[in-house]
Design a protein that fits this description.
Radius of gyration: 20 Å
Number of domains: 1
Shape: globular
Order of helices and strands: HHHHHHHHHHHHHHHHHH
Number of strands: 0
Structural class: mainly alpha
Distance between the termini: 34 Å
């Protein structure tokens, strides 16, 4: 396939179908993520699932690690079309299972399927970008993906809260399932374009001798070990004292050891370039998402806000995420990706610190929303630049591996931080104790601070 060196826009004829279809998939993933966070208090209340609150999030992320590895290896060898279609189907089934659940255990199974599907979708889309778009458009397309959060963020949380209160939370999931079918149909022209380009890339890849990371079977086994270890951390709070924390610590060590071969060399040492880039992605995701899931819960339980209102704080963060992403895309290459990532990382730390102060001092929903506005802008600034850096450090042979590494460390770190925050939250009394919320936010703040020096090392040595 021949691409113009300087395409007019993401909607130029050769990119239009892929851009619209990919945007639709990201849009639906964003809606589902925001909706779940909003309606989880209603889900746990109806299904008597307080003990599984953190697992419903961390388990989804743990399952996404497996999806990420499978899709990454599959994409490197056969192109992104088959992984994308398979992942979409699994995601759809997960939505139906969760939406029809009458037991919390079944709901969690549905969330696991959603996690596998969403993780694989993300990697497949990254490879689509690498295969079809020139490097000059990478900041814009990743900015567009982040901007796909803005529409569901404006209507998703309040609509999901309203549906949960007026109809049933079940339809939040079943409704998204219907929309996924529409997105899949929309992707048909794009799939044809990707397939045509994919054959040329497959021939190119076969001529490249470079091999990165362990073999496919070993990678999948390692991903399963990581997922199982993260689930063990989440389930540790179900164990009686003194077994809970020792089990969590052992599981954390196992997850770290199993994840190392799935990441670029020296990632956990923050080596300059690609390793630090992958590490930064995981740290900022761990900090942001572990804090995010407790904010609607705190505003609902502490301040008495209805779900349709407490979920608006997610809207604030998602809108500022899209705004930050748009801004970094506009500046393009005028500022280095490392410099922009450092600014975004600092904004995340500031925003999470505001949540910690709110939990301790009871500053109120307005202050919490203002803080999350800052944190969301930081995420919107960092995420597209991290993706851009990772692709810049990649070759055609390892695009799938490196894209998978980003998603693996993102998901594993987020799931681990959510699980540990859940342990702290339960240990300190849960929803009835403001200190429990403060402990969860303090963990996120520490992780965000650890990300600051890593951001400076994303530049090549």
């Amino acid at each position: 396939m021949t691409l113009s060196d300087r395409p007019a826009s993401l909607l130029a004829p050769q990119f239009r179908a892929t851009t619209i279809g990919s945007f639709a998939l990201v849009f639906l993933g964003a809606f589902e993520a925001l909706a779940v966070t909003t309606v989880m208090p209603a889900v746990t209340a109806e299904l008597n699932g307080d003990a599984y609150y953190a697992l419903a999030f961390s388990g989804t992320l743990a399952a996404s690690v497996v999806g990420v590895v499978v899709a990454g290896r599959w994409s490197d060898r056969r192109g992104p079309v088959a992984p994308l279609l398979t992942a979409t189907a699994v995601f759809l089934v997960g939505l139906i299972v969760a939406g029809s659940a009458s037991l919390m255990e079944v709901f969690v199974v549905g969330r696991l399927l959603q996690g596998f599907g969403s993780g694989a979708i993300n990697v497949a889309l990254y490879v689509v970008v690498a295969r079809l778009y020139p490097a000059a458009l990478h900041p814009r397309i990743f900015g567009a993906f982040a901007a796909a959060w803005v529409l569901p963020s404006m209507v998703g949380p309040p609509v999901a809260g309203w549906v949960a209160e007026q109809i049933s939370w079940h339809w939040v999931f079943l409704g998204v399932a219907v929309l996924v079918l529409g997105a899949a149909a929309l992707m048909v022209p794009a799939i044809r374009q990707i397939s045509a380009g994919g054959r040329a890339h497959e021939a190119e890849d076969n001529a490249v001798a470079e091999q990165t990371g362990p073999g496919s079977l070993v990678s999948i086994v390692l991903a399963l070990v990581v997922a199982a270890a993260v689930l063990a951390i989440s389930l540790a709070q179900q164990l009686p004292t003194p077994f809970d924390w020792p089990v969590a610590i052992v599981a954390l060590i196992v997850a770290g050891v199993a994840a190392r071969p799935l990441l670029p060399r020296r990632t956990l040492l923050a080596a300059r370039g690609l390793p630090a880039t992958v590490l930064l992605r995981g740290l900022v995701a761990a900090a942001f998402f572990a804090a995010e899931i407790y904010m609607p819960l705190m505003l609902h339980e502490r301040d008495g806000l209805p779900l349709s209102v407490s979920g608006l704080i997610l809207t604030v963060g998602a809108v500022s995420w899209a705004a930050g992403s748009h801004l970094q895309g506009r500046v393009g290459e005028r500022f280095g990706s490392t410099a922009i990532a450092r600014v975004g990382t600092a904004l995340i730390a500031v925003g999470i610190t505001v949540q910690l102060l709110d939990a301790l001092l009871g500053l109120g929903p307005v202050v919490a929303a203002a803080g999350w506005l800052v944190a969301g802008a930081g995420m919107g600034t960092v995420f597209p630049r991290v993706a851009t850096l990772a692709l810049a450090y990649s070759t055609p042979r390892n695009q799938g591996f490196n894209s998978a590494a980003l998603s693996i460390f993102d998901a594993a770190s987020s799931a681990t931080s959510i699980a540990i925050a859940g342990l702290l939250f339960a240990l300190l009394g849960g929803t009835g104790n403001p200190v429990a919320y403060a402990a969860a936010f303090a963990l996120s703040a520490v992780v965000a601070l650890l990300a600051q020096p890593v951001a400076a090392r994303t530049a090549a040595a």
